[in-house]
Amino acid sequence: MKKKLKVLVLFDGTSPTKIDQDFSEEMKTPDWRTEKNVMEALASLGHDAEHLAIYDDVDLLRQKLETFAPDVLFNLVEQFKNNSGFDQNIVSFLEMQELPFTGCGSTGLTLCKHKGISKKILHYHGIRAPNFVVVPRGQRIGRPKQLKFPILVKPVKEEASYGISRNSLVENDEQFRERIGFIHEKYKSDAIAEEYIEGRELYVSIMGNTRLAVFPLREMVFREVPPNEPKIATFKAKWDEEYRKKWGMENQFAENLDPALVAEIEDNCKRIYRLLTIDGYARIDLRLSADNKVYFIEANPNPHLADDEDFALAAGKAGLPYPELIDRIARQGMTTVRD
Predict the structure, then answer these.
(1) For residue 339, what are the contacts with CB-CB under 8 A and spacing of at least 6?
(2) Which of 15, 135, 197, 312 lies 20 to 30 Å from 212, alpha-carbon distance?
(3) How far is CA 13 from the centre of its chain?
């Protein structure tokens, strides 16, 4: 019989919060599905779970730790003061306090968040990624000659396809300059421009620290997108249900992949996970070209954990039902060795 745990689930606060704030109304809305699912899973397992939302005051956490004394912090925080650039800083704080927490450490979060740095590290180790260039804000916007159109332009540090739309795919130098300028201005961010890889969009879910489990591959399919149109995972393609229906976009388990290719993808993703110093759990996004070349697109430590998202569905297909997945993540967080 496994020991029942005291788990403190950390949420994002979107405005200043109180230590005992009730979020039951928020948890009825789609935006809070992950928080609701995790709390319900922990309760169903018999764990003593409480929650705390962090907005701009980490002292609330210190107070809560004194009164509740959890065995582990279940970290669902992705921003601080509504700024998603600070998720690794929250984790650094937990590391400095030597608190056990779930998911990825600060180094892995930092390396994965910067799409240019993660690609440079992997390229150095011989892992294939699209040709790319990072264009810092304030720098003259020019396209290196080795970068071939069409090119996808994105903010260098945003997640969940934020800042990616149909206009992100550029076909000429004028569009290239315009879109880079737009990213610099609108997102106050450096831009990354990478060659568009025609092919299948694959999502690989991995969990573990020293021993890694790779779950069955998921794929975003684009049924109604005309053959000559680009198939890109824009913000709308991921999150806007009506838009997804219109273009026949659906996430499903990847079909018709040669077992040897699947094994190669799994090995590659384990290498990526380790090279980017990820721990906890992650989803790695790939492109598979028509000639079966695998391209790394990005790594997402601490991906969405709602029970209807790719990570949980892939774990379920691997024989790990949702409550057991949440239990394993919590227990893994207690045993992770943080340097």
Answers:
(1) none
(2) 197
(3) 19
Provide the token pair at 294. 């695998």
Count Cβ neighbours within 10 Å for each residue of 90-113 and write b for 16 or more, e otherwise.
bbbbbbeeebbbbbbbbbbbbbbb
Helix axes 322-335, 310-317, angle to 10 degrees: 100
Task: Say which CATH topology domain 6-102 has.
Answer: Rossmann fold (3.40.50)
Homologous superfamily in CATH for domain 198-335? ATP-grasp fold, B domain (3.30.470.20)
| 127-137 burial code (b ≥16 CB/10 A, e <16) | bebbebbbbee
- Alpha-carbon gap, residue 158 to 190, rounded angstroms: 10
What does the alpha-carbon distance between residue 152 and residue 196 come to, in Å, rounded to a whole number? Answer: 6
Out of 3.40.50, 1.10.490, 3.30.1490, 2.40.128, select the CATH number for domain 131-195.
3.30.1490
C-beta of residue 118 within 8 angstroms of C-beta of residue 298: yes
Q: Which residue has the tokens 């207690």?
A: 334
- From residue 295, give the alpha-carbon distance in Å to each of 45, 57, 155, 191, 217: 39, 40, 19, 20, 15
d(CA 251, CA 18): 38
The identity of residue 326, as a single letter, is: I
Half-sphere exposure of 265 (CA within 13 A, CB side): 30
Which pLDDT belongs to residue 144?
Answer: 87
pLDDT at position 247 is: 77
| Confidence bin at 66 (pLDDT 50/70/90) | very high
The angle subtended at Cα 196 by Cα 138 and Cα 234, nearest 5°, is 80
| DSSP-based three-state secondary structure for 205 | strand
Is 0.85 topped by the overall pTM? yes
Residues 299-328 have a mean pLDDT of: 97
Nearest to 324 by CA among 68, 2, 86: 2
In the prediction, which pLDDT does 162 show?
65
Task: Report whether 183 contacts 199 (CB < 8 A).
Answer: no
Close Cβ partners of 313 (under 8 Å, ≥ 6 residues apart): 218, 251
